[in-house]
Amino acid sequence: MFLQPTQISYCLLILCAAGLSGCQMLEQGSRSEQETIQNTNLERSNGLSLDQIDRINILLSDAFLAFQDNRLTTPVEENAYLIYMQVLSIDPENNYANLGLTEIVEKYLDWALNAAEQKHYRKALDYLNKARSIDDAHPNINAVYMQIEESKLAKQLEFKLSVSELQNRSDNVAVQLEKIALIVEEHNASVVIAARSDKDGRWIYKQLNDATTTRVKATFLRSTVPFVRVLYP
């Protein structure tokens, strides 16, 4: 039996379609194999398995929550430092864990400065030593230690401010701050500003700066009792 030309063309189209589909299937299969090989090579290049990567992600999440909760090095079995060290035991070059350790050190240093500003020098040194135990090469440790020592040796004058007059921005408190500013400028002193809110603290700082010819060096504390402490050599 002979096929008509139209029938031959139809058969050829079917064969071509079948061949094209087969080519597509082969191409998709090849692409899938390539992706699998690439993923395997990625894991091998990092030296980590997928299970290890999953474990690291869980640990990093736990460490972040511990840090946010100020569980930096305590309690003993559930703190950010310990969890970050567990990550580094799996992946010694993990950037997130190393950054987390740096943030712990910096938080301890911040606490040390705040404690010194409140004249709690033993607590300040305790925080400083905790920071040093994590990274004794951190560039800010010596600077914070010097600030604590200078605070201990500095002469201090403390001026309490009226809560109601501060809230009302009264002329009395403005005049008081102007007099404090003159003392600061005379002795080239720094100040600790304690206020009930950031807004009050910024207003106090502005009054001091407006009354001096140079910018006042200041640190800020949150306190229910507002005051300005003048520190000078």
Q: Could you please describe the fold and organization of this structure?
A:
- The chain is α+β, with helices and mostly antiparallel strands and 233 residues long.
- The chain has two domains: 50-152, no CATH class; 154-232, OmpA-like domain (60s Ribosomal Protein L30, Chain: A), CATH 3.30.1330.60.
- 67% of the residues lie in helices and 10% in strands.
- The chain contains nine helices and four strands, in the order H-H-H-H-H-H-E-H-H-E-H-E-E.
- Strand 2, helix 9 (198-210) and strand 3 (217-222) form a beta-alpha-beta unit.
- The N and C termini lie far apart (116 Å).
Write the layout of secondary structure elements.
Layout: H1 5-46, H2 50-68, H3 80-90, H4 95-117, H5 121-134, H6 141-153, E1 155-160, H7 163-168, H8 171-186, E2 190-195, H9 198-210, E3 217-222, E4 227-232
Parallel strand pairs: 2-3
Antiparallel strand pairs: 1-4, 2-4
End-to-end gap: 116 Å
Shape: elongated
Query: What is the string of SSEs from the N terminus onward?
Result: HHHHHHEHHEHEE
- What is the percent of helical residues? 55-70%
Short summary of the structure?
The protein is an alpha+beta fold. The chain has helices at 5-46, 50-68, 80-90, 95-117, 121-134, 141-153, 163-168, 171-186, 198-210, and strands at 155-160, 190-195, 217-222, 227-232.
Write a concise keyword list for the protein shown above.
60s Ribosomal Protein L30, Chain: A, 233 residues, 10% strand, elongated, 67% helix, 9 helices
